Amino acid sequence: MAQQKDSTFYIIAQNSGKVYYTSEAKLDGLVYAAKVEKGRFPSGITQFTLFSQHGEPLAERIVFIQNNDTLKVNLAALPSNQTTRQAVKLNIVTKDNNNNSVTGSFSVAVVNDSLVKTDEQAESTITNNFLLTSEVKGYIEQPNYYFNNTNDNTREDLDILMLTQGYRRFDWKQMQKNSVPTITYLPEKSLELSGTIKTPSGKPIPNGKLNLIVTKDNLLRDTTTDAEGNFKFTNLYLTDTTSLVLKARKANNDDHAIISIKPMDYPPITPQGIEDTIAVQLQPQALAAMQKKYTDYQQNQKQDYLKNGIQLKQVTIRGNRPPKPPELIHSDNLNGPGHADQIIMGDKVEGCVNLVDCLNGKLEGVRFSSDGRSHILRGVSHPPMVLIVDGIIMDSNHLSELNANDVYSIEILRSGAYLAIYGSNASGGAIVITMKRGYEDPQRVSSKPLYGLLAYQFNGYYKAKTFYTPKYTGPKTDAQQPDLRTTIYWNPNIITDKDGKASFEFFNNDTKGTYRVVVEGIDDNGNLGRQVFKYKVE
Question: First and final CA of the chain: distance in angstroms?
Fold first, then answer.
């Protein structure tokens, strides 16, 4: 220690990578003491690091700061004198620590607490997840214990948790050299689709024009490939699984281009080994009472029908039902299944020895020449119709070689609206045949690809479904089956206005007891907020 006397040392405190405190002092004794106000740090884990005068880290200690800096979430008025199936309207008001109104996004869950018992000490919340469990390695048995009714004991236990499970190692030498680690994956702001365009020989096509067509969403986008033949469509907002078509054309108008899609390079998901679970326990007596009530209701309904019901004589209604258009479950038609001038399902041609003979005279606006080629009736000078089997262009004389029993659907494209997507590949029209699943056409080995076109199934955003909430608005609803819901209401995205206010409505179920309302979320400045309210239904 004597040789280190009067040497300079530094203390740096940071939270989430941001420095909130720095100190410089000289080692003139065995003990150094300094007072730092907790109010200068945000709530969460703060890392204190001791550095030598040469900038080498010597020791580290992390502490958990608990300040009163979370959002204030309140109800304008708690419901009182509630009854079963009664309409409930709740108004929330959100403010920051300075009592200013805030705009934010909040989730609301209303649960019948008498049926579903919640362990408030062990439940995962937005507060303990953001501030604690996501920052500390290892399993924390009761994460909400440290935030629910904080006192000296919980703060002391939380500090012990920091000493046992809070150890982390940082490469300060790399940071001191201003060497920023390479980020291999950036978060997506929207969906994108990328790929390449090449010639049949495998050479990239530079400056190639490419169109993206999504019929369902009325979307048409275009782009140009780079010097390596690569293309990319960004800022795509498509929901669910969407069928899209890519149409390419070289600068010299040569359609012999092959489009390929690059698979998305998602980061690997590393399981933590321990999953958060919520133990849902129904009280046996309450469950038995509900089942008995429902059984009695069914029996009373049956007796009422037998006693007061009127049996009508049999009535026979005759009429001419219009033919129902065929429904296609799957199809290789680039316009989408069923988007054609004429549709013939495979069951209409089953048993045919020669498919050409069976179709001759059945296809509207199409006639067959002696060599098996098909033409539009507008004139023989037009080019022949193209035959597309399972998305592959084939010579039209293969039509007679197809097994009619293996045909799922036949779609005829004659009009310009349906042929536009195929471009010059089908200038004279197209017969699109989709074979039954599991069938392999022996002629496909010698067939040619559909140049300049690619149909692709794109996985878009998940389109969330609305949480079911019944509405009891009249006396007839009393005759419905018992309402045994445990989760009364759920809304993942309630936005507060500029005054920090928002409202939502729901109906109680048929069970009396305590109802639990959980509101939690985050404002525009990243501040967290959570509050639990309870009311009784008599």
Answer: 73
Contact 262, 194 (CB under 8 A): yes
Please tell me the number of Cα atoms within 13 Å of 37 on its side-chain side.
2
Q: Are the C-beta atoms of 154 and 145 separated by less than 8 Å?
A: yes
pLDDT at 356: 82
Tell me how far apart the alpha carbons of residues 500 and 90 are, in angstroms, rounded to a whole number. Answer: 14
Q: Is 12 left (phi over 0), alpha (psi -120 to 50) or beta?
A: beta
The pLDDT of 334-358, averaged and rounded, is 85
- Mean pLDDT lowest for which of 125-129, 155-159, 282-286, 480-484? 282-286
Q: Determine the pLDDT at residue 372.
A: 54
The first and second tokens of residue 219, run together, are 């979307």
Residue 232, pLDDT score: 93
Q: Which stretch, 326-330, 452-456, 486-490, has highest mean pLDDT? A: 486-490
Instruction: Give the dihedral sign, CA 371/372/378/383.
Output: negative
Residue 244 clears pLDDT 50, i.e. is over it:
yes
Taking a C-beta distance cutoff of 8 angstroms, is the pair 261, 195 a contact? yes
Helix (H, G, I), strand (E, B), or coil: what is residue 61? strand
CA atoms within 13 A on the CB side of 16: 10
- In this prediction, residue 411 has a pLDDT band, given cuts at 50, 70 and 90, of very high
Q: Which of 185, 195, 252 is nearest to 226 (CA)?
A: 195
List CB contacts of 537: < 8 A, sequence separation 6 or more.
82, 83, 84, 86, 508, 511, 512, 513, 514, 515
Q: 356 and 372 in contact (C-beta within 8 Å)?
A: yes
Contact between 393 and 386 under an 8 Å Cβ cutoff? The reply is yes
Q: Quick count: other Cβ atoms within 10 Å of Cβ 402?
A: 22
Strand ranges across the sheet with 87-95: 72-75, 87-95, 501-507
Measured between alpha carbons, how far is 360 from 354 in angstroms, rounded to an integer?
10
Give the whole-angstrom CA distance, residue 45 versus residue 54.
Answer: 26
Dihedral sign for Cα 372, 376, 379, 382, please: negative
Average pLDDT of span 444-467: 67
Unique residue bearing structure tokens 């782009």: 223
Residue with tokens 């680690």: 181
Question: What pTM, to 2 d.p., does this model score?
Answer: 0.56
| Dmax (CA) of the chain | 111
Place of tokens 């609206």: 417
Whether 188 has a pLDDT exceeding 60, the answer reads yes
Residue 163 half-sphere exposure toward CB, CA atoms < 13 A: 6
CB 451 within 8 A of CB 247: no
> If we measure between CA atoms, which residue out of 76, 5, 15, 75 comes closest to residue 42?
15
DSSP states along 336-356: -TT-SSEEEEGGGSTT-S-HH
How far is 235 from 189, CA to CA, in rounded Å? 8
Whole-angstrom Cα distance, residue 428 to residue 415? 10
